[in-house]
Amino acid sequence: MLKQRLNVLIPNTALGFVGTFHAFANHISQLIGSVSPISKFRLLDSEDDIEVHKLVMADFGNFNKNQRAKSLQKMISYCCNTGLSVTEYIQKFDLHKMADDAQNIEEYMEAYEKYKVDHMLANYDDMISVMSRYLEKDGEAKITAPYEYLMIDEYQDTNKMQLDFVKRLKIKNVMAIGDDFQGIYAFRGADHRIILNFYNDFEDPQMIKLTENYRSNDDIVGWTNQTVERSKLGYHKALKAAIRKDGAVRVISGSSLENHKAFVIDSIKKHPQKTHAMIYRYNKNRTVFEKALIAENIDYVVYGGVRLLERKHVKDALSYLMVYLNRRDVVGFNRILTLLPGIGVKTAKRLIKTNMEDISHLKGEKYKLVNTVKDLLNHTGDKTELFDKICAFYFSIYESIESNYYTKEEITDDFKLVRDLLVTYDSLENFIINIILDPVVDLKKGKNPKVVLTTIHSAKGLEFDCVYYFHTHDWYKNYDLETLEEDRRLFYVGISRAKEELYVFDHTEIQRTFEDILRDFDSLPIPETHQATDLENAQSESVTENTQVERADSESAQTESVLTANAKILEDSEIHGNIERNNQRKNQNTKNQSRKSKVIDNVIHVDFSKR
To answer: What confidence tens digit (pLDDT) does each residue in 436-479 have?
Structure first.
């Protein structure tokens, strides 16, 4: 796509490599040839990597508690991308259950890495980390093809491992495109602070600011600008709406999401031709609206999650109801039996064949579990009572069920939603027919869904005519500067998805203004000495209105002032983390004052000729 767009703008222009960090690392490996440390390794995708973990775990056996392959894969990948130790990872995500196994997991990581080397296997992270270590010394000389320019998109989403890799390539001209206010993927290992440190990581930097907004109307752009202006950290920018179009921006109060349900449904019905997005931080916030959409038979898509009736635990529970109504449903029967600890496909087939009449061959816990399933399928009471018993039994075997995507609380919320739907039907048969066998159309298969339920993280990069943003602020959290700024960035990304209409649903019954909402992110005072100077308003003593060159020098000085303040905030709040700082650069301030770097608005161009 990028190559096609470039040829439209500049015909007959050829790009070099275009792809992800992982693909570029592989590309470098191929250029180097047989001397590459991973030239003959088999590349593992995510699912293959999990299978490798299972093989290593089968022979390891030193864990104090039961560990899951997927959880270990996630942890090791995060540590690889960020440079954190296992203990630091456990502390960061407050994983108390894994604390006792920290040392064992460290040992497991060594066994896992050795297994991959012995069997010549490499996962996606290895592509970057192994090549990065290989290039650590004289990286430029090891690359057989010349690279004069490197452009990195979404630079605010890079991590330490990727930054190390880029720096070790020693490509002189690096262009980074990004918005520090959209750095919201810390939970994946991304570090938005890297974009704030660009001036220290690369030589002779220049900044080009794109301030024209081609998505939203004036009112919405005004709200996004206000959000940025209140931050004490980052590159400040004042966006201007290129589209002159009427719309709406409102803050709507309400103590619960139930208060907003009718408003959203009515709005969707009044404007069926428009695109609508309900944007929230936590998946649990969609429950009320998903129930309403299903009840109104409104087609919708879920981003950042799976539609209710497609979630594994919901399908597990509904399988009991399906088999309860029809013992010949072998697919459902097999599903509910193989959920039980110790029951595999062969045993399940034997039980299905006899309709579980003969379970004498089972012993101990297996016998008790299968007997409980028999009792559930022979239930003679009310349908909701049956569903409650199914849910209770499901949680009794929860620990043995592979479920890394949903917490018990989320599963409980989903089961409650299904139960609420179930009680609206006069019979279980009608419920199955209308909800399970004839669900609303899955618009994920279409190209242009009109109604979307999405987390903030999954909404990034998307846009909608009407956005209903569910504002929540966790007052119970022990906020530090970084946590507050992350909340502010999430809010910014959420509201900036709107094109025409933006409705911010507040979490209180008190009618508040947008200014009041923004104060939620200001509860931690910052000393005056740490406050960054606004790029748009700061004035330099050397500025004169008559000289363009002096104006450029002033803007450069303003940029350096903000970067210095940003660095001070990062250090003093102990969130500087693992970002490499170039402490050996001498006379940096003198060099920056003499540099003729320009901050250019509304231009998509980088002039490398002076580098």
So the answer is: 544 543 334 345 789 999 999 989 989 999 999 999 876 555 56
Per the document, the length of the chain is: 611
pLDDT at 92 over 50: yes
pLDDT in tens, 158-214: 999 999 999 999 898 999 999 999 999 998 999 989 999 998 999 899 999 999 999
| CB-based contact 456:305 (threshold 8 Å) | no
Start-to-end CA distance of the chain, whole Å, equals: 29
Query: What per-residue confidence (pLDDT) applies to 279?
Result: 95
Is the CB of residue 17 less than 8 Å from the CB of residue 25? Answer: no
What letter does residue 529 receive in the DSSP assignment? G
- What span, in angstroms and rounded, lies between the C-alpha atoms of 279 and 285? 9
Which of 216, 261, 206, 271 lies closest to 239, judged by CA? 216
Q: Say if CB 98 and CB 74 are below 8 A apart.
A: no
- The encoded tokens of residue 277 equal 């997005």
What is the distance between the alpha carbons of residues 141 and 550, in angstroms, rounded to a whole number? 40
d(CA 322, CA 428): 9
Per DSSP, the chain holds a count of helices (H) and strands (E) of 27, 14
Q: What is the dihedral of CA 436, 438, 440, 442, to 10 degrees?
A: 80
Q: How far apart are the C-alpha atoms of 226 and 194, rounded to whole Å? A: 24
For the record, the structure tokens of 292 come out as 């309403």
**Helix pair 364-377, 312-325: axis angle to 10 deg:** 70
Angle at 38 between CA 33 and CA 39, to 5 degrees: 35
Is residue 15 within 8 Å of 3, Cβ to Cβ? yes
Q: What is the DSSP letter of 211?
A: -
Residue 101 CB coordination number (10 Å): 20
Closest CA to 337 of 325, 326, 327, 349: 349
Distance, CA of 198 to CA of 268 (rounded, Å):
43
Report the C-alpha gap between 2 and 4 in whole angstroms: 5
pLDDT grade, residue 604 (50/70/90)? Answer: very low
Computed over its alpha carbons, how large is the radius of gyration of the chain?
A: 28
Helices (H), 83-187: 86-92, 96-99, 102-118, 124-134, 139-142, 160-169
Question: Can you give the pTM of this predicted structure?
Answer: 0.69
Q: In which element (H, E) is residue 505 found? A: strand 498-505
Tell me: the pLDDT tens digits for 331-353? 789 889 999 998 988 898 899 98
**Is residue 273 helix, strand or coil?**
coil
Please tell me which residue, 360 or 605, carries the higher pLDDT value. 360
Residue type present at position 225: N
Percentages helix, strand, coil for the chain, rounded to the nearest 5?
50, 10, 40
Q: Compute the distance between CA of residue 475 and CA of residue 477 in angstroms, rounded to an integer.
A: 5
Alpha helices in 170-217 (DSSP H): 193-196, 198-201
In this structure, what token pair is assigned to residue 123? 């996962």
Tokens for 299? 């087609």
Give the up-direction half-sphere exposure of residue 17: CA atoms within 13 A in the CB hemisphere: 20
User: Could you report the per-residue pLDDT of 528-547, keeping only the tens digit for each?
Assistant: 433 333 333 332 222 222 32
